[in-house]
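ok new one. same drill as before - structure tokens go in, u give me an amino acid for every spot. 178 of them this time. try not to just spam alanines like last time pls lmao
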């Protein structure tokens, strides 16, 4: 089966790319969601849940911003899109940098610093939701076979795959259905 560049990125250099490009950012986001629920339950400015939430949001915002800069500089220029699903997966992944950056700037006091506590909480929650939605769109379309979106497998460029670490798999012996 053919795969998108997103899935190929996650599968290369196992397990490190999967950990660095998906598990860490999504794990941080899910931890923020958990702390967000606690902060909504005990919504006062000095709560432990909000302190944890702030710390995790800063880590996620900084980590994902740096990650997307790396992807934009080192990975995106070297790929050839493999159809609409591939383009959508990569676009959603890259777009997730914006809400991650909003979380970072919000928690560092760069934006919305004069807003009331509840307004900042709402803004934080909305940025987190957008990040999660974009991350899940990237995962869903990244796991889609590019052939489903109209890209013929025979038209795909596998040149970049030959130098990748496939965990001992020999790409020349892989089945290619046409």
């Amino acid at each position: 089966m053919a795969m998108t560049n997103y899935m190929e990125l996650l599968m290369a250099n196992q397990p490190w790319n999967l950990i660095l490009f998906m598990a860490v950012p999504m794990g941080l986001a899910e931890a923020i969601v958990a702390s967000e629920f606690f902060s909504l339950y005990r919504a006062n400015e000095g709560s432990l849940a909000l302190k944890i939430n702030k710390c995790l949001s800063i880590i996620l915002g900084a980590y994902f911003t740096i990650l997307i800069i790396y992807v934009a500089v080192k990975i995106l220029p070297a790929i050839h899109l493999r159809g609409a699903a591939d383009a959508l997966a990569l676009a959603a992944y890259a777009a997730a940098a914006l809400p991650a950056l909003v979380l970072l700037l919000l928690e560092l006091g760069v934006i919305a610093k004069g807003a009331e506590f509840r307004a900042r909480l709402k803004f934080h929650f909305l940025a987190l939701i957008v990040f999660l939605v974009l991350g899940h769109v990237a995962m869903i379309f990244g796991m889609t076979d590019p052939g489903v979106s109209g890209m013929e497998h025979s038209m795909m460029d596998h040149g970049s795959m030959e130098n990748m670490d496939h965990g001992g798999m020999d790409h020349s012996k892989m089945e290619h259905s046409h």
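Residues 45 and 117 are 7 Å apart (CA to CA). and btw Confidence is low (pLDDT under 50) at residues 152-158.
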